[in-house]
Design a protein that fits this description.
Elements lengths: L2 H18 L8 E4 L7 H6 L2 E4 H5 L4
Parallel strand pairs: 1-2
Length: 60
């Protein structure tokens, strides 16, 4: 994940909060086919990750 990806997700969360006027927590979740590379940007914004292999019950 790059710095621009992180900024894009932060902007989307902010837009969602503004549009819905929610005061609840918003938890970004990454849904991927093969997983994502965990780095500083990923760790600062993504709270959980779901992979297709999780749905299919296959190991990584």
């Amino acid at each position: 994940m790059t710095a621009s990806d992180e900024e894009s997700i932060r902007n989307k969360v902010a837009a969602f909060r503004a549009e819905t006027k929610t005061r609840k927590a918003v938890h970004p979740v990454m849904v991927t086919l093969a997983g994502a590379r965990h780095n500083a940007h990923y760790n600062s914004i993504i709270l959980n990750e779901i992979c297709v292999s999780d749905w299919l019950g296959e190991g990584r």
